[in-house]
């Protein structure tokens, strides 16, 4: 019996325009099984979806680096794995020198910081509906207070993306993890946590076995999560390599795939 459901957001729960259909919202409000969103997004980018679905259980942000519970006033942090400040400072200097054309942003648990408004930032604003604070990254890196969870890099040029990924990988940053998220995003988070380690943390806290949980995903970064759970369900819009993980293929993210998958593979 499935007692908990984990789902990715972009390309999975969310449609191509970044929303959740009315039918899925209504379905989730009536679903008795707790649902946890597992996303690379920041909490403030997740909260509108959490509220629209009426979710109250712990949620996973920043690719597993933050577990939080939504509250009436925002969020309550349950687990944190933050970026190493000195490595972020080093990256900021290197990126400014070698990749000035790439849009760079930093996130703490409640704010998105970026250097300037540009085409890439406008693109991200349209996706998430969140507005950034414009500042110099070296200044924000030296501030006291909340640590950072994610460095996000955006470029629309594929050659630049390939070179950037190679450059960061070759730096050998031991405490950081590098994820490509879709065509235009490269995300740097703590190497301590992943989507699957965050799920394992919650399963231990809630005394659940992996066989008692299901997960929905569509991307390569969802593979460890899908391999962990007893019931992995993959979206129709996923790459072929991801679909090979399971025989359970639901409809696409634009066709209420999560709702359809729950009805077909969990509730029936």
Automatic annotation (TrEMBL):
GO terms for cellular component: cytosol. This is Haloacid dehalogenase. SUPFAM superfamilies: HAD-like (SSF56784). NCBIfam families: Cof-subfamily, HAD-SF-IIB. One of its GO terms (molecular function) is phosphatase activity. It comes from Vagococcus penaei. Pfam families: Hydrolase_3.
